[in-house]
Amino acid sequence: MQKDTDTRASSWGGARRGAGRKKTTARSIALRVPADVAAILDAVPGPKSAFIVAAIRAYAASGKD
User: Fold this and answer.
1) How far apart are CA 51 and CA 65, in angstroms?
2) Which of 42, 21, 6, 19 lies closest to 52 in space, CA to CA?
3) DSSP of the chain, one letter per residue?
4) Per residue in 29-60, is it b (16+ CB within 10 Å) or e — as a string?
5) Is the pLDDT of residue 44 over 90?
6) What is the mean pLDDT of the chain?
7) Radius of gyration of the chain (CA)
8) Is the pLDDT assigned to residue 5 strictly greater than 70?
9) Between the CA of residue 22 and those of 16, 19, 65, what are the distances in Å?
């Protein structure tokens, strides 16, 4: 059996300018919530993360600790 030793450059794979995920300042976290909070999040239409971020910002702005 003869080996294929083609030395041509392949256009498949490899690094490409602009490929991959873009850099972001967002930080990913995981958290566990009680069943009642999970039910609230399940009822939220659209992205849950936007709802959670808005709720946390509203809580921080209210000055409650």
Assistant:
1) 20
2) 42
3) -------SPPSSSS--TT-SPPP-S---------HHHHHHHHH--S-HHHHHHHHHHHHHHHT--
4) eeeeeeeeeeeeeeeeeeeeeeeeeeeeeeee
5) yes
6) 86
7) 24
8) no
9) 13, 8, 35
8 residue type, one letter: R
Residue 65 identity:
D
- 52, amino acid identity: I
Structure token digits, residue 65:
């600790």
Q: Residue with structure tokens 């392949």?
A: 10
Cα 15 to Cα 4, 39, 52: the distances in Å are 24, 43, 36
The answer for residues whose C-beta is within 8 angstroms of residue 52's C-beta and 6 or more apart is 41
